[in-house]
## 1
Amino acid sequence: MAKHSIILGNVGNFTDRFMGVGYQRDYTLEEMFDRVKSVKGVTGVELVGNWHINERNFKQVKKNLERTELSLVSIIPDHFGIPEYGKGAFTSKDPKIREKAVSDTKVMIDIAVELGGDLISLWPGQDGYDYFFQGNYIDERGWFEEGVRACCTYRPSCKISIEYKPKEPRNFSYASNVTSTLLMVQQINLSNLGVTIDYGHGSVAGENLAESVAILKKYGNKLFHVHMNDNYGSWDDDMITGSIHTIPFIEFFYWLKKTGYEGYISTDQYPYREDGRDACNESVRWFDVFESMVDRIDEQKITALYETGNACDISAFLRDLMFGR
Amino acid sequence: MAKHSIILGNVGNFTDRFMGVGYQRDYTLEEMFDRVKSVKGVTGVELVGNWHINERNFKQVKKNLERTELSLVSIIPDHFGIPEYGKGAFTSKDPKIREKAVSDTKVMIDIAVELGGDLISLWPGQDGYDYFFQGNYIDERGWFEEGVRACCTYRPSCKISIEYKPKEPRNFSYASNVTSTLLMVQQINLSNLGVTIDYGHGSVAGENLAESVAILKKYGNKLFHVHMNDNYGSWDDDMITGSIHTIPFIEFFYWLKKTGYEGYISTDQYPYREDGRDACNESVRWFDVFESMVDRIDEQKITALYETGNACDISAFLRDLMFGR
Amino acid sequence: MAKHSIILGNVGNFTDRFMGVGYQRDYTLEEMFDRVKSVKGVTGVELVGNWHINERNFKQVKKNLERTELSLVSIIPDHFGIPEYGKGAFTSKDPKIREKAVSDTKVMIDIAVELGGDLISLWPGQDGYDYFFQGNYIDERGWFEEGVRACCTYRPSCKISIEYKPKEPRNFSYASNVTSTLLMVQQINLSNLGVTIDYGHGSVAGENLAESVAILKKYGNKLFHVHMNDNYGSWDDDMITGSIHTIPFIEFFYWLKKTGYEGYISTDQYPYREDGRDACNESVRWFDVFESMVDRIDEQKITALYETGNACDISAFLRDLMFGR
Amino acid sequence: MAKHSIILGNVGNFTDRFMGVGYQRDYTLEEMFDRVKSVKGVTGVELVGNWHINERNFKQVKKNLERTELSLVSIIPDHFGIPEYGKGAFTSKDPKIREKAVSDTKVMIDIAVELGGDLISLWPGQDGYDYFFQGNYIDERGWFEEGVRACCTYRPSCKISIEYKPKEPRNFSYASNVTSTLLMVQQINLSNLGVTIDYGHGSVAGENLAESVAILKKYGNKLFHVHMNDNYGSWDDDMITGSIHTIPFIEFFYWLKKTGYEGYISTDQYPYREDGRDACNESVRWFDVFESMVDRIDEQKITALYETGNACDISAFLRDLMFGR
């Protein structure tokens, strides 16, 4: 049975490149914790380095975790919002910045462990390139692997999980899709290293995310964490899960169950124009729908469907499952 | 209340560029009519020129229409499967071929009327271009308008409806999306000329089809016909309607109702590996689901939603409408 | 002969939703004017309302225009960076905000005229919707037309030009592509209303921009302004013009010349990680290349190519034009 | 120095799903061999199983190879054009068909070796799925690996190379992109197994193909073969190489050289409406341009560019390399 969590910033304020002042008002850390807590069924929270947690506000965060009884699901080190990392963190052409990416991560590992966490979700958003002839692909992938390896060996009890995304903020990311990332995970070859699926990132990469879950199962049981949102397919729109798609989410949750995924399922949204708390609540309510639907799937029936792959039978099966007709 | 129909070839055999021999067996005209007839709730059939109907088999088709009591919903003249039209029909650089495109259409208009039809659905699939510097865009759009105008004035009692598609078989089509086509319809400015929405073509064009229905309503009530199928967004996959998407179809059917669309809703699929009859049946069964859901929409509630546009309320509303939770 | 200009902010600092603090340092207004001026061949500048020009800094801007002898090419009113416009400006569900969108535009019209300008380039970035069932499409397009009409009739000597874009910051824009916008321009039907092509926006809309130039020529000579940048096709990456594509730009500049476009060609970029001045300079240097190539096109040869549309001949012609082989 | 070849069918006739009769006339095997031979600089030919080579016409093909002195670059077994393979070859849910996929491949291996070839380029076009809940992803990827392994161990002196493609004719392929395929290649772990890059397939998968070359180098030197064509980014348009893009091809050829690729570079096109021989010739002429440009790259300059990654310098460098300005 999956556990549900929310990335703290999801209930806050949002900017984009045109609305630098933010679409809404800012919230205090306390308010944000309360807003997460108010979503029924949510038992965990994720924090972004610098944005929500650092060495200076450590005690304040600890107090909020205790007060709300939310588990620290993961820390996402800030490798994307610091100008020094603007041209890459683990893959910066400057070796000092590459070192800093590792040492900053170690700080976050220590903080996470101290707060009772056991997971770092790395999102190497700036590790990539924009222009042709800009990236020295072999060297830079090598640097990425080196840096991540150094993070993994620092405290092997803490899991490190790489969140992939094909583009944004770089035009091309090195950890671009599930198999590109898995290849690096296999190359590094450490048991505390895995992959975070962000549903929307995978969609933009052209993946059917249920298949991505299966691939991570097949090649080493490497699904370590899940971020959820919805989009229209060409960009990381970061919308309410379930607001655009339905059937692919049912299949996704089915494969999570089938492969025995036991981690958290977090919202990871940018509800620019919505109340963030309400938008997260909506996603979690849709998680409930998809999970209860998966629980109602008759194993015998679905086994038979997989044996033939008959699309008309699948269609009828889903219509019945979803709408009883 | 919408009426349902099927394009005859949808229950037949299918080829693609790699499987030239066809994925299945061929069916006789009689068999195909029987297969269409066997789908519950279907009262009409569409025919493709040459492929299903021509001057030679006219009587045979007539007999089948009578026998099955299916209405002739439209004829789609074959402007795409004849080598002479390979580089364009209405927009061919050869004026003789442009003339032929018009005269072939007139033949189909006569046949349609004779068989009790009142609609020609033009799909100008070859009217476009592949390479940069290949299309003389102004002239060729002009030729397109001239040719369609000549078809419209031939028998004004017969409606002519242009089906748009962004690409395939050309890399760029002239009638590429709903507004590109509407612009030509306005330029030609004849009351018997309108637009056919193919749901999948519009999706590939990046449209939200509910909005396309609204646009056609706003600018002259020009939605004349509807073709249905589903796809993954980047290509005209021509799959079972409802097999990929759910909510966008609910919105689409809602706007069909809201704008008072009274024409037929046809399947337009390529079930390469499925039994065509069963695949059409599945689509029609999903039409039933979407239509009954639209019928259950509370007008007061939805009016309130449109007044605020609150995405969280919309999400909750849809979850309740779809799944009662 | 086209004239070249730069949007002032292009030589400044840049943020995105992850790097809210900006990738670079900020520049003063004076510095930015100097940076624009330093790009060889640039004779004009575009200003964004609020960001660069308002009622308070009017004199400072005027002084900078005089000092640098740059022409004011256009003002782009800020309909996208003010929280009140977060859910729409001309199409806000709140009539007071719709009125404000018009009155804010009128202020910018007055300022532009006072500064010697004759063009307002409207970019209605927030006028659209994000979720299904959120936009009341017919009403909202109607409001858009009303608002723009009010701007156009205010001072008919000032041209108003609508810049279209399929998405971002909304998931769906009303002025989404060239024909969607042209349809509204035709509906409003005023001679001082036209369309701004942003090359990258059109690419994301799936357009071949040379064809878009032709379409604007055909239906009323409505190309009023041009913004330039390059991208990978799925998103408005706002890169250096010519850094990704080559042949499509040659065709685009060819059609600008062929249709007699005489306005400015502006850079419109987001060089997050580059020096903005240098990135603009690069684009302008590529403009020079494309324009000189177009000037070398032999009219007789190209007329012959358009008569046959032979793709192999076109390929050989371009290879010779570009590389002399 | 790369060697150039042509897939025999590229100089023949072409069908699509609408133009089943073919856009052009058919050519005899002799004519096709002559047409390939007539393209300057081409020294090899690729053959598709069944379509061009089988046990019955073996001698005829042999004679043509000798007559034209073209090398047999590879055979592509027909796993996509036989109805039995319509729902999968190596991944068919029917074990007998999976066995047939292997045994058919073995026949082609024997023929290839007999004709002096040492490469089988597998294109598993039907190995994938169309609908959600249709593919049993873990089992089916496993079957794929089993089948390919059996082909590899049959005659280890013959290289086997998997050509990936994200979709078409299935909506999702198992060998979908470079890293998905490399993962299977690593799992099978045999030295005669590698990957074929089809430039257009990779583009549709969202790859920058120069990076794909680098990735194949980094993880085991696994680039075994190259197929060339061009497209608009969203579909396998199979156009003349160089007709759409320029700079990305320069970078691609640069990385081929940099990584020491020594195999053949083949055209793989579908010039539906062009003379196939002329369209192949155009591609090969563009190969010449790109290769000569790469040869003119100053190693010191490019090393400096890679050290900074300065996009403006790269832009200036390319403009000078391409156009001397």
Note: Chain D touches chain B through 35 residues (CB under 8 Å).
## 2
Amino acid sequence: MSKKLTKRTEDYSKWYNELVVKADLAENSAVRGCMVIKPYGYAIWEKMQAQLDKMFKETGHENAYFPLFVPKSLFEAEEKNAEGFAKECAVVTHYRLKTDPDKEGKLMVDPNAKLEEELIVRPTSEAIIWNTYKNWIQSYRDLPILINQWANVVRWEMRTRLFLRTAEFLWQEGHTAHATKDEAVAESLQMQKVYAEFAEDFMAMPVVKGAKTESERFAGALDTYTIEALMQDGKALQAGTSHFLGQNFAEAFDVKYATKEGKQELVWATSWGVSTRLMGGLIMTHSDDAGLVLPPKLAPIQVVFVPIYKNEEQFEAIAKKVTEISNELKAKGVSIKFDKRDTLRPGAKFAEWELKGVPLRIALGARDLENGTLEIARRDTFEKQSVAQEDAVATVVSLLETIQEDLFNKAKNYRDDNTTEVDTFDEFKDIIANKGGFVSAHWDGTAETENKIKELTKATIRCIPLDALEEEGKCVYSGQKSTKRVLFAKAY
Amino acid sequence: MSKKLTKRTEDYSKWYNELVVKADLAENSAVRGCMVIKPYGYAIWEKMQAQLDKMFKETGHENAYFPLFVPKSLFEAEEKNAEGFAKECAVVTHYRLKTDPDKEGKLMVDPNAKLEEELIVRPTSEAIIWNTYKNWIQSYRDLPILINQWANVVRWEMRTRLFLRTAEFLWQEGHTAHATKDEAVAESLQMQKVYAEFAEDFMAMPVVKGAKTESERFAGALDTYTIEALMQDGKALQAGTSHFLGQNFAEAFDVKYATKEGKQELVWATSWGVSTRLMGGLIMTHSDDAGLVLPPKLAPIQVVFVPIYKNEEQFEAIAKKVTEISNELKAKGVSIKFDKRDTLRPGAKFAEWELKGVPLRIALGARDLENGTLEIARRDTFEKQSVAQEDAVATVVSLLETIQEDLFNKAKNYRDDNTTEVDTFDEFKDIIANKGGFVSAHWDGTAETENKIKELTKATIRCIPLDALEEEGKCVYSGQKSTKRVLFAKAY
């Protein structure tokens, strides 16, 4: 298999798929639409998980685990939610296989093992969780409930792409219960903020915080808060959402609490989630034609050492020095790989670690040993510098910080350069068709206009930015009065 | 709900179920046989996961993720494995629901959305993983593959019990591929050793390492290595298994590698797993009539502070002291809870934290403040001691270590006291029926005898201990020649 990738300018989508497979992140499986997350890809996901989990716990949440299956009667209890997910859910109807009498060595579904009630493989867990919360909540003293779950979910999507849209994916889903509306709204906004901080400070991926329009909301939510990122091809990616669910689920599952005054009130809900889709966002924010580019904070390997030697003796001397420097770096929390393979030439190793996005590569050869130097190469800029060995640790530590910042700034500049304010629909169409990116435009607030624009341009309203200024304006499509700009884009 | 538990001597099984629910570990869900793992229970599981994951990584394994579903054609490829799991697997047959035309607001399976091939919800992942490994393995350079997966699996068990046997459970499953038989056998033994170390050093649960007899092996394995623990009611618990799978899966999925010499050889396999069942083992090894007893290394809360005060002023002074000592303990890695609730009396708090198994409770009252003392109570022995505040940190740290050791020793003594060597079948039946525990006896090596004994006594061969001595003997049932004693017990 050639390690070379299709160029992004040639075919962005092909480049993406090739990168995901060749950098050992994930691959398609024998199950339609389901992926295998390979060890290197999973190691990145584990770093994301660990940081998110920490942030959830710091904001007072605990983890728990709820069943994979949702009985049909619970699934359909909250009407909008059920309607939103019914079209794409995997259904378990039987609980046993038996030997097929007509085909030797084959199994068939045992018709005598039909379930009385079908089980839906969870596409999201509001139903099963609120049915559980019902028993946990009696009085105001039982609130708030602040729970998160790390789990797999299944949505039977027809068109799938590795990480971005798969039938099964991994995610976390927070489900909280509150005594008051204000508290629930504050919780959903807080989690949007946590997601934005994670995206920007760890993924180095700038995001816009906003609210979804009614037609783009989560099924069953009164408000969906989103973080939206811009990919290198000018398409937007919804990277995380936090929903204010009002009392819809409390009503559907009859979850009430006794107030201090002894009154019975319905409970207020939120839910919020990010998924392995973030992996797609990470890849498409930073990577280039040579492969993956990883922000140091999420790189499973931050520094790779490649020895350059002609004989065993040289190798031994280099290995000794590498071990010495590695130990110092490890003590500072830097993760290291020493690529000792004798089956590959240094050039091939360089290409492989570039493909895999390791932020820093350190080459050490015989001449370096003589001169007391080594060569540090940045993955993001390909810049190389020769550094005195005694300065290696300090240089690495500082470069890792620099790269983290530079990646964010580069992505932010790209995002800003590709966010265009427009005031006419001709300009709107032109930008969406030719430049791409976010288009900031006035909208009259109707679903009708929103749908019409989508139909004509394939652009959707990504969000109503939380920090949108109040300004007098006219809807870019209908000419009706508007007081705020919203962000449009084509999206993943 | 009364917090008091049924006594173990009254009804062990009832005691167990009550404890699991009342200590907030888990509860039954709306889905038959599936449990909800509550935050406190999940926090213990997370501690187990973190430690096991560390041990897997230290032994060279990486994590990855494979699909939840196994297409029927892959599922049935390895015959013994398929046969072993066919009787209890959940089957997805459809991928969409639609509005039921006959029942308003209800959904029904959409008959037009029938899958061409049924999908089995994984009961274990050998099939899907070996179908993937096929593409990953070409040459000896691709071996070994050392992968672990943390996942949920489903086995449609008819009789379920929280943690011990549930339709869905959480587990880890290692799946490794090797060039040689020796390497694969060594791997499976190594992982058995890792499990035993985890059980003994972290769960404080002594285990016997052994091999399963043919009839007790994992479906598709050539050898199953097990760790077996003894619960307080004299029944054994299989706590973890590691399988040498030979070339069965390589053959079924045609997974071959080119040797250095260019020959094509079938790959050798192992798989190994432990699950949330360990939670059941943990509970039944240490807990008592007052509730859960946790070994400090797995306790989410190691020390709980309960203030005893009559007025706000006293509370403030106590809180100040608690914060001071807490900070010192936290710096030493001890996890703390300060129970400030003003809705409960100290006695009620004591009972609650006893129920939840917090290893140490520290009470601090107004008189303690005057005297510069505090009272430390051990959960495992109920021993209390008054300690000078300046000695609190050192005492706590040392007591946590002591408790960890004491729990192991107590459980080991119990296990040893309840392991009986017997040489006649009358004695065998008597011990199994009246005393319980492990029975060490000679066995003639035939499945026939094994089945007969099971039929007559409900005892099964838990394992052939790895350290069993060679000795001349006669089968306890058939009188045939035997060279080794094996361990029998009734089991969970």
Note: Chain B touches chain A through 65 residues (CB under 8 Å).
